Amino acid sequence: MSSFDPELYRADFPILSREIDGKPLTYLDNGATSQKPQCVIDATSRFYANENANIHRGVHYLSRTATEHYEAARTSIKSALRTPETHELIFVRGATEGINLITNGLAEELSAGDEIVLTIMEHHANIVPWQILAQKLDLKLHFIGLTEEGALDLDAWKAAFNERTRVASFTHISNVLGTINPVAEMVAFARSKGATTVVDGAQALPHGPVDLSSFEPDFYVFSGHKVFGPDGIGVLVGNRDRLNGFVPYQSGGDMIDRVAVSGTTFREVPERFEAGTPNISGAIALAEAFAYMEKIDWKAAAIHERSLAEHAVEELKKLGDIQVFGTTPDKTAIVSFLYDVAHPHDVSTILDTEGVAVRDGHHCAQPLMDYLKVPATVRASFAFYNTHADVEAFAKGMQKVQRFFG
Asked: What domains are there in the chain, each with its CATH number?
């Protein structure tokens, strides 16, 4: 048990007090999306109630105020991420759009026969865009496997680099296994080989701050809805010079320098990649989520989350016939498992009758499921606001599964 007290924070999240079919909600699907504190909800409402106007275009008070708050959100998030001076922060719809923006930009830099190194634990969002790019340009993709514990086979990953390797794209933390990749070492190695680095941080930031200045990837992406912020907003942090060299991913208003019938010139980043009216309220509320996270003792929270995952695994082992995937030391609080007597969908359905929300399926990681030789898993993913009472409710639900199928 840790000294971290989640009860100090639970009251900030209104949804955690609701009931599902008369049972207290036990929310263990944080890997899919996190819940939102009242301050984030209020920030969204406050914008629409008091400040709603388009940005960058009007001289009237509301437009000026909306612009100031939108750009202040960018500044505050850059500060929280310790964004390197060489990098800029672009608001996107989420990590998925961020990676698509990057692959679209890199299309101008790559040529047939170039190679990209990926890992088998990637989310589809960090696989499919590269596959489309590879098919378009005749590139070669390398998917690197894992150790028995579910860690990346780092030796094999390094051995995959050669004189044609142009890009290494990898997740910071696996959304299925909870494995934390050694991103600083990986970025440094890829850089030494002349490869561009892309890091998917969607599962990392919900578990504590990330200091981008400590390893400076070329590109880093994440989604707001996983970091206690709104959906439909995300962040791409990337090298400013590289981004300014990319052909715009989308075109339209606000990203132009000058439009004439003879042609158009474009603004530099970040406006270069924020065409049209952006998710203004989402950016402002995301900054509020970052401000909220600054109040948390993340070192203590990490110990607490790990104790929850360990407690959950202990309860699962009591049932027998349980296979847990991802057993690396110091992994994040994600427990993916199979119960031999029941299909993952049936497990999830029965848990739902007890008010316990977990995820079943391939978790947008079908190549990893194929690698593990399983069709799907059940995933219980924890956040700092979860409690050991949540684990006990989960255990009670699993006992119900055992009775039903036993």
From this structure: 7-30+297-405 (3.90.1150.10), 41-293 (3.40.640.10)
